[in-house]
Amino acid sequence: MHLDAATQRCAVYAERPLICRIDELYQQRLSRQLTPRVYYLVQAAGCVALDASNREVPQAVMQALADEQGGAWPAPLSDEEMNAGLQTVLTVAAPLVARM
Q1: What kind and span of H or E run contains 90?
Q2: Rounded distance, CA 75 to CA 72, Å?
Q3: What is the spatial distance between Cα 66 and Cα 73, in angstroms, rounded to a whole number?
Q4: CA separation (Å) from 19 to 50, 66, 75, 93?
Q5: pTM given for the model
Q6: Where are the domains of the chain?
Q7: Exposed, middle or buried by CB within 10 Å (0-12, 13-18, 19+), for 44?
């Protein structure tokens, strides 16, 4: 991780790349292809895959989605939704990562 805990800024880049700004990435590149539920739960699963200490992230994302929906808890992603969402995110992310 390259987040400076003291400043809450990226320790690698002067300006964080779009790939690191998940909310902006969603709005700019993925909001027409994925629902917020699928996008953010795919991202949460990625956090856990990268670092097991992030295992509480999916639950926090589910809570945030529920809060945005007036308390209605979203359904977990099916395997099909996870795979399709992951493929979409990776397809959009690959050119951004290649430019880093």
Answers
A1: helix 79-98
A2: 9
A3: 5
A4: 15, 25, 26, 7
A5: 0.82
A6: 21-98
A7: buried
d(CA 40, CA 91): 16
> Mean pLDDT, 10 residues at a time, over the chain (100 residues)?
70 75 93 96 92 92 93 94 96 86
Residues of the chain by 3-state class (helix, strand, coil), percent to 5? 60, 5, 35
Is residue 92 a contact partner of residue 34, using CB atoms and an 8 Å limit? no
Digit-coded pLDDT (tens) for 37-65: 999 999 999 989 988 998 999 999 999 99
The residues near 88 (Cβ < 8 Å, ≥ 6 apart) are 30, 33, 34
